[in-house]
Amino acid sequence: MSDRFKGMVLEGKLDLPFSYSAGRTASRFFIELRDHQRIMGKRCPRCNRVIVPAQLFCKECFTKTDDWVEVGPEGTLITFTVVYRKESHHPKDAPLAYGIIRLDGADTSLVHLLAETDVAQLQPGRRVRAVFSKKRIGHILDINHFEMA
Amino acid sequence: MGRRTAIIGTGQTRHCSKREDVNQMELVYEAATAALKDAEMTVKDIDAVVLANMELFEGRALPDMWCGEGAGAFMKHAFKISTGGTSGTSGAISGYYHVASGLFNTAMVVGFEKHSDGNTSAGMALTDPFWDRHIAAAAIGNFALSVSEYMADRGVTEEQSAKVAVKARRNACNNPHAHLQMPDLTVKEVLESPMLAYPVHRLEMCPQSDGACAIIYAGEELAKKKCSRPAWVRAAVTRHDHIYLGEVKNRLSTIRSLKEAARVAYKMVGIKEPLKEFDVAEIYDPLTYAEIAWYEALGFCKDREGGRLIDDGLTRMDGELPVNPSGGVISTNPVGASGTIRVAEGALQIHGKGGKRQVPDVNLVLVTGYGVYCWSDVMILSGRPD
Does B386 map to a domain? Predict the structure, then answer.
């Protein structure tokens, strides 16, 4: 069978440097996280949704967002998973829990890490609270994780 | 709708976890030559070439440059389509547009993926640098995130999910191209397989395969001349939803891209009772729970009844609407090809070339693609041009 054939296999690894520009809107979102431990969204003037993380434009209305709105730091756990296998790019060792969190005052949700990894404790509807990192650099992981409120 | 257009040939490689006997271009070549043989054509007969692939999953960019010549692109109109998991169906829809537009008389689409050449998780992590890369980049956890939400919302049980896995891997035994063929798989074995990401077990998830699939389109006159029973394209619809999961509400329950694409496609063809009217469906099931969710979204049953459809066996080979006689994506998953395989398997059923997986008297076939976090493609194929 074809898959039994053992051929030459070229093994290798590349460095993949990057320096992505966040743009004005996400830059302010990250600066607010870093300097003030505030989670910011922006409101769409057309559909009135508060979109988090803040975005330049509403993708449903294709309209520029205007008002900045502080949301959270508490919210409601919508759903979650616990990953039991370590992946090289995961921020933490397995088990790794993350969830979809609706922050108070927001109309969209944030996907973020959860400190709790016991499935029995992670019920949808549970209240959670953002825990900020001590050393903040302007990054989504300036929120270190969410803990049970 | 453009000019009447049909699929007149299909070709697939043998799909498995690692094909060391071919490189990426040769894998593409294998599917392309199989389709040309099936259609009784030569590469000279092909006017346009479309490649479908996930690009970075193989740890290399520009698949059209690397692999296009394997699909006969030399000195032809040729390019690639890359829309995540929907790449294979989006490529198929693009091939259809080429011929239906009247600008090309024939088109060949080749979807492919050689997962074993690269690192899929790294490929996923290369998508969004600011938000998901650091938190939810891997495919399994990303899907699993939506499963507990769906189970709670729709009352689907893990036994019902496991039944989908059993159906798929048994159907795959009738498909000589399929990757995971498990004739004796049981619900118990599925649920005892390791939990990858709560609540998803390994045997509820699709594999990663090496494989390619090609389809050939022709305009009406040539299709009738070359093929005794062409598979006519009656509808082709694409819808894209948000790419950030936080903006998508209850993904598996709502899947509004699939619902909307199906609504438009059904209207084009006049489908009112899909479970009764379709003779076979090849739907893109990245994991078992998605197949049940798609039953509901595609209107095979009401919301909350998807689990019962599998309990009652209505989607088995001998049921009212056989779903995935090929074994589906759960059994075979070379991602860039997975959508093209759905289209090819649907066409095969109309061509009457399904072999042991042939459903009797197929006239109307539903095909879907699923990609990124919630993008959808829907195609309807028929033995009749209108």
Answer: no
